[in-house]
Amino acid sequence: MNLIDQYKTVRAHSLKICEGLKTEDYVVQPMEDVSPPKWHLGHTTWFFETFILMANVSDYQVFSTDYNFVFNSYYEAAGARVIRTDRGNLSRPSLDQVYEYRKYVDEAMAIFLAGKIPSAVNDLIVLGLNHEQQHQELLITDIKFILGHNPLFPTLNLALDEGELLNSGEFVSFPEGIYEIGHTGEGFCFDNELLRHKVYLNDFKIQKHLVSQGEYLEFMNEGGYEKFEFWHAEGWDWVKRNQAKGPLYWHQVDGEWMQYTFAGLQKVKMDQAVSHVNFYEASAFAAWKGMRLPTEAEWEIASDQLDWGLRWEWTNSAYLPYPGFCKAPGAIGEYNGKFMVNQMVLRGGSVATPKGHSRKTYRNFFHAKHQWQFMGIRLAE
User: Fold this and answer.
1) Superfamily of 171-376 according to CATH
2) 161 falls in which pLDDT band (50, 70, 90)?
């Protein structure tokens, strides 16, 4: 697929995700980490306007001089911006204006893409498309958080293939030795996947399949959320502070566990992979089983023999730079490097990840407390 078609396809998918939303759904921000869908649509458009059109088209006229302030996310080099917690207060610009903004920038990009594009700019456009795909996953998970915290538990025609687990107890073994991890070869990768390097691993076993909801319910029924010995100290504080009893979106109704999905409130399906658990919960479950979470190096080495892609999988690895990691100059250098502190690595992908966006070297990262992404558990020992 050529670059013009890639651009059209990616940009259209963002709108497809939002098709079933009501106007009011676009502006809600129930917590700091969730951004309103309207903001996602504007921010991904701002990326192309700021880093491609403004930087490379001499007579380009911005859609609005206010939008750099409104839709810049965290790029210090790009200037002042709305505080993240205030994105839900953006009743203006209106939803119609945001859609007009997307159309305006897309028309300008179509003209630009029809010309001769320098290699460095081509790479930046590809980064922008991958950036939008990241926001497509955030769109889905943010929309689920918005609707899942609506007392009416509304439905949305956004079917996700949650899959069924076949045999969650099977393990694959690997001998000790020196292995290589990190991206190599042709194709796009983010800077945090570089440089490829050697790691030494002791012999280990890793679960071929993800932990199921039925298995996780056993942990809950045996007092997993009441026994401090399974939890990190910070995790135990989280349990007590939030009176946690189970994964996000699980509700006990008339003695039966239900979970919110885009199809509304449904019975928990025991043969599906558990989802929406944070690092604290994943680690506690592993401790209860007498096992542990895999490191990201173990996960990557084993990935060719694993079933993955249903859930982002917590690893026991802190998000840190690889040997030889180098940040790009300017705003683009802020993309990954400055977040390499106090976060844990997740590997794989999820049912919300756009097709073809993930790969075995992809390093996702979140704080240990986060649940709202499609996060799951794989065991190792």
Assistant:
1) paralog of FGE (formylglycine-generating enzyme) (3.90.1580.10)
2) confident
SS3 341: coil
Q: Which of 232, 199, 162 minimizes the C-alpha distance to 301?
A: 199
Cα angle, residue 122 at apex, residues 116 and 127 outer, rounded to 5°: 155
Which residues lie closer than 8 Å to 26 by C-beta, 6 or more apart? 18, 36, 37, 38, 95
Dist. CA 37–CA 43, nearest whole Å = 10
User: How many Cβ atoms are within 10 Å of 154's Cβ, its own excluded?
Assistant: 15
Q: Contact, 230 vs 288, CB < 8 A?
A: yes
Average of per-residue pLDDT across 106-127: 97
pLDDT over threshold 70, residue 179: yes
* pLDDT band for position 208 (cuts 50, 70, 90): very high
Identify the residue whose tokens are 């007579």.
Answer: 59
What lies within 8 Å, CB to CB, of 184 at 6+ separation is 196
Give the whole-angstrom CA distance, residue 71 versus residue 68: 6
The tokens describing 62, both together, are 């911005």
Please give the Cα distance from 94 to 233 (Å, whole number): 45
Cα separation, 56 vs 67, in Å, equals 18
CA distance linking residue 292 with residue 269, whole number of Å: 24
Give the start-to-end residue ranges of the domains of the chain.
3-148, 171-376
Q: Of how many residues is the chain composed?
A: 381
Residue 229 vs residues 236, 280, 289: alpha-carbon distances, Å? 9, 12, 12
Of 67, 99, 95, 65, nearest to 81 by C-alpha is: 67
State whether residue 330 is helix, strand or coil.
coil
Residue 76 has what pLDDT? 85
For Cα atoms 136, 140, 146, give the angle at the middle one, nearest 5 degrees.
135
Predicted structure pTM score:
0.96
Residue 307, pLDDT > 80, answer yes
**Rounded to 5 degrees, what are φ and ψ at 34?**
-95, 125
Q: Is the pLDDT confidence value at 127 over 90?
A: yes
**Cα–Cα distance for residue pair 76/139, rounded to 1 Å:** 23
Sheet holding 264-267, edge to edge: 250-253, 256-261, 264-267
Tokens matching residue 201:
């691993």
